[in-house]
Amino acid sequence: MSQTAIDIGAIERELRQMWQEQAIHPNAGGQAVIRALTLNLIARAPDDAWAEQILSVAPGLTAQHPNRTVIVIDRPGTTVEVQAQVQALCTLTNAGRTQVCGEQITISARGTPAGQLAGLVLPLLVPDLPVVLWAPGPQPFAQPLVQRLYRLCDRVIVDSTTFTEPLTELAELATFEQKAKGAPAVSDLGWTRLTPWRELVAQFFDSRTFLPHLHRIDEIVIEYAAGTVVNPVAALLFVGWLASCLKWAPLEEAVGVEGETIRLYLRRPAVGVGPAAIRLVSVEIRPSLSPARAGLASVVLRAIDNQRAEFVVAQTDDAGHARTRATVADTPPIERMVKVDPVTLTDLLSSELRLLSRDRTFAAALNLAGSLARRLTSYHNDPL
Question: Are 140 and 172 in contact (CB under 8 A)?
């Protein structure tokens, strides 16, 4: 039934009654049930579509990180409407073993002021447990509820693949992360999706044969899948990762946009010609011309300084594999088909929930990617 006020005490009483009933009446499988909470997870759904996604992944998250999940469906509207629902989320284990359960509280709101929603959420958090805020969707830090809650959280998780103004929002995310300095820590599921790509590129240079070419990279070409919104954020984060790890620096104003193709220039230390010498690294980022799954489609690194070399990672038609190729000078290329496990939204979130502090690798990559995004947004012919 719709109402404009929710009795927090009634929610807590319902939770206690739920666990008492579970303790007295074990489930039909004969499994004992225990309540185990390791964190508070607040998930803000900006619309009904996101609410469905959040509700679908909550049980899987509880299986890996037993928690009290507070889902807030924050819809706009002219009339205030608030409802609350409580349920237990339990893992499925083998018969005869203990079943571990968490809790889910769903607050469905329409036209409700952020202050009122925050006032409902905060008393529901379990004391002395970490608090994580998951805020998917565009412009997360512009949302009044997020602004009310983030200072009280240990971690804030966003998803740059859902940005509708990608360059502007990437720059804002970088600014927020730098100012926060880990309080709260910031995570981006768009960055988490890059993990297989970063691992495959790094594996090239585990070889002593290829390692010298890592410091002689002169050209980078990145293609990404183009959806309804042209979103080069993943490619910029990848460049930010490489540049921050290898001590490259963007050239001031050295950016260009031609249609949907982005061109950037960075400087790197020159190898073998003195400590002050530099070389340019050119970067081209463009949408893929061929059909590709979401995310990056291919990454090409070329070294033309001294001995020519090329390193490629690319999607294949099989979602469970990627193709890598390394070519040095005139030697035959070394090619591999690499197994890449498909990653679900639950997997991505679970990976981020394991982090206990600021991810400094991500922070460095985001800082550099944000500076590139700011240059691109100020470029007078920027169509993105």
Answer: no
173-186 burial, b for 16+ CB within 10 Å, e for fewer? bbebbeebeeebbb
Beta-carbon count within 10 A of 126 CB: 14
Q: What is the DSSP letter of 3?
A: B
Cα 13 to the center of its chain, rounded Å: 36
Crossing angle for the helix pair 166-180 and 360-378, nearest 10 degrees? 140
Domain ranges of the chain: 8-153, 195-345
DSSP 13: H
Cα atoms in the 13 Å half-sphere on the side-chain side of 61: 31
Cα torsion through 101, 146, 185, 183, rounded to 10: -120
User: Do the Cβ atoms of 188 and 160 come closer than 8 Å?
Assistant: yes
* Per-residue tokens: 245: 């790890």
Among left, alpha and beta (phi > 0; psi -120 to 50; other), residue 47 is beta
Render pLDDT for 241-260 as a digit per residue (tens, 0 to 9). 999 999 999 987 778 888 89
d(CA 198, CA 160): 17
CB 379, CB 256: distance < 8 Å? yes
Q: Each residue of 146-164: pLDDT tens digit?
A: 999 999 999 999 999 999 9
> Residue 65 gets which letter from DSSP?
S
Residues of the chain with pLDDT under 50: 1-3, 28, 380-384
Tokens of 216: 């002689």
